[in-house]
Every structure is written in structure tokens, then in C-alpha cells.
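Continuing from the previous page of notes. For each protein in this section, the sequence appears first, followed by its C-alpha cells. Read the first protein now.
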Amino acid sequence: MRKRFMTGALAIGFAAMLTLSGCGAPGGDIDADYQLYEAASAAMNEAVSIEMDMNTTMNMKSGEEGSDFGFKMEGNIKTIKKSDTEFEMEMRQTTDMLGASSETVTYFKDGYMYIEMDGERIKMELPMEDALAQANNSAMVFDQSAIQKSSSKDTDGGKEIVFTVSGDALKDYIEQGTAGALAGLNEGVDINYGDSIITAVIDKDINMVSLSLSMSFDIAAVEEGESVTTEITIDMFNISTDNITIDFPADLDSYEAIAA
């Protein structure tokens, strides 16, 4: 049971991660595309509150003939920054994994993460600074120098931009999204990040409407000579920053406390 809760927490981390010139073509105007993306990303990260729908898929394969493992998660997330030191969240998700489906509701409030899954309810302490770091990590931030190519096209009332970004550019974003799980694999392990494809739809008011990431990385255990290839796709859509509220259950204190 604890393993399933921690797998859910890892999925939440990924989930917590993750938010107007003429039509371009592949290899087009990287400067203009990046400036627009940077402005929309800044507005997304500076928003007091945000709500979005989110789909995440992860597939892992161990070795050339190893076993496959993966999950798919669909859900909705709301985050509210109450102040520079206070943050709240609600996330509702359905996760399909190993042929089974589960529904999870997660809250963050007053320094605790509350998780309800399959009729069981737990809570674990999460330092506010860690929660705020994830709240400030909604959009995918990278330097312009990391862009290998870009393309853009006009959409209804805005623009769609597609970047191909070099492998290590989103390393910090992914490691923060996994609550440091990958960062903790330093000793005896090599992590090689493949190129990432980032697609953003931005409206005429420089608001992020949708944002997606597709990437892969290999985790190699040096001594054992084994590796795991992981492919991740994260889609965030129906992004809104208007009048977001969270209705917390009145009985959060009754959730069972466990160590993080």
C-alpha cells in the first residue's frame, strides 16, 4: 500500500511540475518565438492561482530485452499562492497502471500533503519551501541557447510554438518535478537526457493556453551494466488563472500521518 501511495506521489510531482508575429516554419525565428514563450511562461509562474487539466504518460523499459512498465494519469490541478510563504493545492487524478485503475485526490495545505486513494487517506509533511518551489515550476523554463530549432503558426486568436530543446536543458525541471527522486541517483548512476519537444499555445493576451512536453532519458547503473529507458509525455491544457478556489474537506486532521 505504501508503495502505491509513493508511486502516486511521484506522479503528482510530475504533475506539479509542469505551464504574435507572422507564421514561421521549421528553423524559423527562434528569437521571436522564445521571447513570446518566455513572456507567457513568466505570466504563468507569476499567477496567484492557476487551474489546468493534465495528462501524463510514462513508459520505462529495462535493458534491450527487459520488462516494460508504465502508467497513464489524467486529472485536474488547482494551485493557489496565498502569500510568498504559503501555498495550497488540490489535484484530482485517475491513474492506469499495471492493468488497474485508481482514483486519487491530493491536497496541500499548511505544510502537509493529504492523499486519498482507494478509500484510504494519509498525510505527510512537506516543507513549504519545497511546495513553493514546485508551485513556481509550472512552466518549463530553459535558456534560449538550448533551442535547436523552432517553428510557429497562427492559431485561432494566438500562436502555437514548437521547440526542439537539447537534452540537459530541462534536467532541473524534471528532477524538481520528481521531488528529487532522480537527483538522488547520483552515485554509480548515469542519467542521459534525450532531446525534448515542447509545444505551447499562447493567446493574443500572452496567456499560456496549453503546454506539452515529450522527452526521454536513460538511467544507467554503471557497475551492473544495466539501463532503464524512460519516455515521458506531459500535456497541460485548459489553463486558467481566473477566480480559482479550493474547497478543502473539513476532516483533513483525520488523515493518517506517515513519514515522507
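Done with the first. The second protein uses the same format. Note its length before scrolling.
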Amino acid sequence: MLFLFAVPALTITIAEALGYSTILVASGYVAKTAYDSASDRDGGFERQGESRAKAAADFQLSQFEKAVKELRADENMYFNVILAVATVGYAYAASYGEVSDDMRNYIDDFVAGQGAEHLPPGFRQGLNELLTSPPNVELAYASAMALAPNAIVHCNTIIELLAERFEGSTSLTAQEFVSNWNQLKAAA
């Protein structure tokens, strides 16, 4: 994983986060086991509709297993997207001056939803380190592109939402941030 700025706590936390995918795989196994035991109990399903019900359950299980495999293919993507969007959000918020608690909460809610407070502690610590010295627009853009280039639309969205939310306090620096951000996107 490439980080364009030093956040040592994140590398440990991402390793912890890999355990979450194990939970998903285990829950898939539990669901399959429950399905198998239900079909074996009392002589199986009733004959009428048995084939359709089993086919539907098998299809749902295969879709779930496929989704888990896709998640496991790039286990870090979730955290890369959160980190990329948070980096851009914090950088934009810093263009207003000091990042207020309201701005930070707004960014955290956007990037991780209601589960922001449940992010692994090391990852949360890395985000806190970003807040102490947020990157400039160039570094935020380069970091976002290195971490999750497919998340650039989310980075644009956080900038737009913060601009709308805090429009009464728009500073010249915030306007410059947006202008520089748009130039960097156009040059890519």
C-alpha cells in the first residue's frame, strides 16, 4: 500500500481490519450450514416448491460468496477509500483555517457513516494525525489518486458538501482549494 504521507498507525490497523473479512466468510458458512440443516430436518422441504426454494437459496448464497470473494480480492479498498476521502475532506476543511469539530464530524459521517466511531483504533489514530497537519490540495489529490483513484467522485462530493454546508464562511483559501483541485483533475 502506498502512502504519500506518514501515518504509521494505519498500517497496523489495516492488518487488524483484515479480520473483518474473515467474519464475513464465517457468516457465509453459518448461513450455508443453517440452510443445509433446515433442508435435512424432517425429511427436507415439502415437495411442492422445493426445487424453486432451493434454487433461490443457492443463488443467494452464491451471490453472497461471490461478493465476499470480491471483497477479499482487495481487502484494503474500503479503508483506502475512507482514507482518500477523509484526506481530501480534512485538507479542504483546513482551507477554512482550523478544522472545527462540526466539520470533522461531518467528514467522518460522510466517509464512514454511523460506524465512524467503530473504526479500528489504529486507523482512527491515523485519521487524527491527518487532522493535526492536514495536507495541502496537491498532496491530498496525489494521496487520493494513489490510495483509491476510483473514489475521486467521492472526493469531489465531500468538497461540494462541505462547501454547501459551510457556505456562509467560505474563505478565499477555500475557493483557491477548489480551483486548484479542479486544475489537478483536469490535468490528470
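What the second structure shows: Residues 77-187 form one domain. The CA atoms of residues 146 and 153 lie 14 Å apart. We return to this in next week's lecture.
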